[in-house]
Write a structure and sequence with these properties.
alpha+beta; Butyryl-CoA Dehydrogenase, subunit A, domain 2; Butyryl-CoA Dehydrogenase, subunit A, domain 3; 11 helices; binds flavin-adenine dinucleotide
Length: about 400
């Protein structure tokens, strides 16, 4: 192979100028507007409405939506960079944006009719509406196929009945992407997706859940009680909803991977800073090998997590298969965030256990990444199935 071919085939481990500009823009916003309120919204469990408006103005709620539909028209690598930066400042802001982008705008962009895009996608991408995603149910968690919410056709409406759990953005949401079964006997082929106005009669929002972390993110149960939804609000074909849900989660997992990278990065930075300030035995603790090893492990975890997240984003940008790579990125990054937050608390010693220090919040916020949008065990199932398929007929 000639040198030219090798160079052409080489890999670029570098963001483009545009992607670096996005990072700088989001970091500036996050430092100026998010960092000052992050501890307060954590303490009071307050949804940061003012900042959600500002994120909308900056185009951060419709990043992957083309400009013609009110979005910023960015690629997925830029999207990951932006979610990482938001989450580095505050994981709640990261998930609020990630849900609207990945779980609400994406399926509407991909599966909606032109009329639905004009009516719902444009205002969602501009942040005039706020979206939530209703898949999980009491008996449909990891097994999302077991949808018990029903949608019965009645003239030009479907009548929905059932309960959705753990809905992020539920309280402030104006629109929901929700799943229900038209025919339970058909299993996953009986599931249909809908776009539902949250103020429609029969949509009942529950009380705000009190959580371990991401306190600024509003999580609630949403029940549908004889909720009449026009056929015109159906997202995709009848019975095609499960495919919509799985495809949507492929991108959603990239968003959560990026959120986890942001948390891990914040933990590394806080640990590094503290290790240089804290003096014990007449030296900064950063001079002790035990502390250096933790910092080294954190640096490797952050880099590996980020690279896996960028790879999954890049493949999605290329329109190439990326479900397994998204699962790998989500699994690895979530675990990296939990490990890094743990090390950061350890490096802070007793102070790390106090709410006054940010690492305590990072430790609580990191854990959710291993649970939502598919637990770590579910990601391993996806990855293992692929391994088994890859080596079908024996290892080569
Ligand atoms: C803060 C928060 C926000 C959320 N936001 C949303 C949202 O916006 N929209 C939405 O639809 N959902 C949301 N969820 C729901 C979330 O996606 C689910 O909680 C998650 O998918 C797990 O489902 P479950 O809680 O029912 O756990 P279960 O499925 O009951 O799992 C319990 C345990 O069993 C394990 N397990 C289950 N099946 C298997 C298996 N086959 N093999 C091995 N282990 C297995 C799991 O990994 C887990 O450890 C949110 C959850 C939380 C906590």
């Amino acid at each position: 192979m000639s040198a030219t071919t090798t160079a052409a085939a080489g890999m670029r481990f570098k963001l483009s100028d545009d992607q670096r500009d996005i990072r700088a823009m989001v970091r500036e916003f996050a430092e100026a507007e998010i960092v000052p309120i992050a501890a307060e919204i954590d303490e009071t469990h307050r949804f940061p409405e003012e900042n959600v408006r500002k994120m909308a103005e900056l185009g951060l709620l419709g990043m992957i939506v083309p400009e013609e539909y009110g979005g910023a028209g960015l690629d997925y690598v830029s999207y990951s960079v932006a979610i990482e930066e938001l989450s580095r400042a505050c994981a709640s802001h990261g998930v609020i944006a990630s849900v609207n982008n990945s779980l609400v705008c994406y399926p509407i962009l991909t599966y909606a009719t032109e009329e639905q895009k004009q009516k719902f996608l444009k205002p969602l991408a501009k942040g005039e509406f706020l979206g939530a995603y209703c898949l999980t149910e009491p008996n449909a968690g990891s097994n999302a196929a077991n949808q018990e919410t029903t949608a019965v056709l009645d003239g030009d409406h479907y009548v929905l009945n059932g309960t959705k759990l753990f809905v992020t953005n539920a309280g402030p949401s104006t629109h929901l992407v929700a799943y229900a079964s038209n025919d339970r006997s058909k299993g996953t082929r009986g599931i249909t997706a809908f776009i539902i106005e949250a103020d429609r009669p029969g949509v009942k929002k529950g009380k705000k859940e009190m959580k371990m972390g991401i306190h600024g993110s509003d999580t609630r149960e949403i029940a549908f009680v004889d909720c009449r939804v026009p056929v015109a609000n159906r997202l995709g074909a009848e019975g095609a909803g499960y495919k919509v849900a799985l495809d949507t989660l492929g991108g959603g997992r990239i968003g959560i991977a990026a959120q986890a990278v942001g948390i891990a990065q914040a933990a590394l930075e806080a640990a590094h800073r503290y290790s240089q300030e804290r003096i014990q035995f007449d030296k900064p603790i950063s001079e002790f090998p035990a502390i250096q090893q933790m910092l080294a492990d954190m640096a490797v975890e952050v880099d590996a997590a980020r690279l896996l997240t960028y790879r999954a984003s890049f493949l999605r940008d290329q329109g190439r298969p990326h479900a397994v790579e998204s699962s790998m990125a989500k699994l690895y990054s979530s675990e990296a965030a939990v490990k890094c937050a743990n090390w950061a608390v350890q490096i802070h010693g007793g102070y790390g256990y106090l709410t006054e220090y940010k690492v305590e919040r990072l430790y609580r916020d990191a854990k959710i990444c291993e649970i939502y949008e598919g637990t770590s065990e579910v990601q391993k199932m996806v990855i293992a199935l692929n391994v088994l398929k890859q080596f079908e007929g024996g290892s080569k």
